[in-house]
Amino acid sequence: MQPAKPIKGFVTARFASVNEQLEGKSQGMTVQPFGPFGGGGPRGPGGPPGGGPGRPGGGPGGLPGGFGPGNMLAVPFMNALDADKDGQLTREEVTQGFGKWFDAWNEDKSGVLSDEQLRDGLNQAFMPGPRPQPREP
Q1: So what's the pLDDT on residue 104?
Q2: Which stretches in the chain have pLDDT values below 50?
Q3: Which residue of 98, 113, 114, 128 has the fewest CB atoms within a 10 Å radius of its CB?
C-alpha cells in the first residue's frame, strides 16, 4: 500500500484559488456537463440554447448550471417512451408508455399504485446498469 500523499499542497493552492474567486480576481473553472444527464442530449452540445427556468442562463426560478429534475429525466423518459425513435413524444406515445408501466408496476392488479410500487417501478425502469434478476428458490 502506498503512503498517503500530503494534502497541504492542495489545501494551500485551493485556498488561494477560492480567495481569488471571492475577491473577483478569477472566475474559477467551469465544468461542462457530459453524458446522458447533462450533455449530448436535447440541451447538450449542439442543442438549442438555454435561457429558461432551470436551464443554463437561468431565468425566473432558474437553477444555476441548468440543474433540475428535467435535465436528469428528459433523456431516460425520451429513450423509454419514444416508440418510433424520432426524438419527439406524441400524446399517444406518452399515454401508451405510462400505461404499460402502470400495468407492469401494479402487480396486485388493484388499479392503483402505492408509493412503494411507484418507487420500485421507477427504480426498475431507470436504474443504470444490469438489473438483478430474482433467484429461484
Answers
A1: 93
A2: 34-65
A3: 128
In the predicted model, what is the mean pLDDT of the chain?
A: 74
* Distance, CA of 66 to CA of 52 (rounded, Å): 9
What b/e readout covers 25-48, taking b as 16+ CB neighbours within 10 angstroms?
eeeeeeeebeeebbeebebbeeee
pLDDT of residue 118: 93
The C-alpha atoms of residue 80 and residue 98 are separated, in whole angstroms, by 10
Is 64 exposed, middle or buried (CB count within 10 Å of its CB: 0-12, 13-18, 19+)?
exposed
Dist CA 45 CA 35 (whole Å) = 10
Alpha carbon 124 to its chain's center: 16
Can you tell me the distance from the alpha carbon of 115 to that of 81, in angstroms, rounded to the nearest whole number? 22
The answer to whether 83 and 93 have CB atoms below 8 angstroms apart is: yes
Helix, coil or strand: residue 18: helix
